[in-house]
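Q: Entry one of two.
A:
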Amino acid sequence: MVKQLNLYKMVKETFILRTTELWSSRGVVHIRTIGYDQDEETYIEYDARALLEDIPSLYRMAKQAIKQDEVHELNKYVDFKKELASDYKGKRGRKSSISN
């Protein structure tokens, strides 16, 4: 009888906040990282050639993610300013309808 593997259960998702150690050995780059919780340590062995092939894409994607975050932050404050202006427009000297 052949046992079917469930690949979805084999995938482990990890959020990497910071690299704590980085070194290489013959053909391999070793990376030790932490997530938001420092107890969530992850160790990765990366084929050196594969990592080198991925670096241009990783660089572009990192720049894109930073830009998206900057746009989101800017839009958040622009929307907040509009909301404040809308809430207080023409209400000077009157009791506010906003309750604490």
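Q: Entry two of two.
A:
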Amino acid sequence: METIYNIDGAQLNKCEIDILQFVDSWLPTFQTWSVQELSQKCNLFADEASHAVDMLILHGLMENSEEDALMGRVVQVPDIAQEWMHENAETLNGLHMMNDASLFDDSETAEA
């Protein structure tokens, strides 16, 4: 079962939070990303990244850009989404850190 987090009205899963946290760390320097690149940078399968980007588009946090012949599907972060990410950066970073098990060693994690 997937955990959904409600952040300021947007219901986001772990993949979406990972992508937003990564993108936010590069704003405003880079505003355009290929879905393939997001997949690689966030350690996601291509299908996971594509689905997460689709949901972020539905939330208005990303929008499709012109497709690139080399990199494939490209998305960009609109200005209003950049503002939303800036306002919610602490929450996004906290959830990203909480969900990233690679940041912890075995002595710091609980087992069910």
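A: Comment on entry two: The chain has five helices and five strands. The CA atoms of residues 89 and 99 lie 15 Å apart.
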